[in-house]
Amino acid sequence: MDIVFLAFILVLSIFLGFELINKVPATLHTPLMSGSNAISGITLVGALTSAGAEHTVLATVLGTLAVAMATINVIGGYMVTDRMLAMFKKKEGASK
């Protein structure tokens, strides 16, 4: 593809992502984070497929790096979501 077309898609996706995230109310951030974690899981499956395809050494190395980064993203996302959900739980022994 033409580099100008790819750069246009990149800039457009950055702009749209920024605008969409700014429009989300604070009460919807936890469900949005859970949805993002599901998408990151799909990314992890794609990275595993890329790493195991054995096309070239560079593709295998980049696929392995993608697996590592996607795994960090998934684990970190679930940790943040769990911490956010813990804020909504009632404390043990709290007075009414």
Overview of this protein structure:
There is one protein chain. This protein has 96 residues and is mainly α. The chain has a domain at 29-86. 76% of the residues lie in helices and 0% in strands. The chain has three helices and no strands. It has helices at 3-22, 29-51, 57-86. Helix 2 (29-51) packs antiparallel against helix 3 (57-86). The longest helix has 30 residues, at 57-86. The chain crosses the membrane at residues 57-81. It catalyses: NAD(+) + NADPH + H(+)(in) = NADH + NADP(+) + H(+)(out). Its EC number is 7.1.1.1.
Percentage of residues in DSSP E strands? under 5%
> What's the helix-strand series?
HHH
Main beta sheet strand tally, sense and closure:
none
Contiguous helical run count? 3
Q: Report mean pLDDT, rounded to a whole number.
A: 81
Low-confidence blocks of residues: none
Radius of gyration: 19 Å
Shape: flat
The class by helix and strand makeup works out as mainly alpha
Work out the number of β strands: 0
Give the N-to-C terminal Cα separation: 63 Å
- The share of residues in helices is over 70%
EC number: 7.1.1.1
GO molecular function, one term: proton-translocating NAD(P)+ transhydrogenase activity
Catalytic activity: NAD(+) + NADPH + H(+)(in) = NADH + NADP(+) + H(+)(out)
Function: The transhydrogenation between NADH and NADP is coupled to respiration and ATP hydrolysis and functions as a proton pump across the membrane.
